[in-house]
Amino acid sequence: MRVYLPSTLPALARAAAEGQLGPAPLTGYAVTPALTEWYASGDTEELEYVALTDAARASLRMLAADRADGVAAAPRRVVVAAEVPDATLSMGADLEERARVRLAEAVPMAKVAAVHVDDVSAAADIEAAIAALPAADGGDDDALFVVDGAEAHELMWYATQEIPDLLA
Known about the structure:
9 strands, 7-stranded antiparallel beta sheet, alpha+beta, 6 helices, single chain, about 25% strand
């Protein structure tokens, strides 16, 4: 199954150096039966885009957590697309977790199909979204609008052989 794993550039660098994304368990996003049922009119490509978008939202939260922990990370959301065996996944059934999956094993970099990353031009909007997250979580509509603005930026696609250049 194709799984979209939220990440950051520092986490991607660690994974590249270690040869795997992990440690397990990992949270990812995929086209699950619950997502397919919820988005009944969508084709596979549209459903994969929903899962990718959910992973990008999680990446934004990872960036915010890194900042809170004093880790300097470029303000770019990162999503790693990987092919993993269905047997390593567990899926949520409720509507809030319709695309969320849990991976019981680390993902070898050899299973990575591509990496999706914000373009450098998105940095200002991603910074603003990171700063607005606490207020958005508190119900502030203006802050939520700023966070949602990060999604106006499409993630760029990178082949696996481009990962070293992306991290340079």
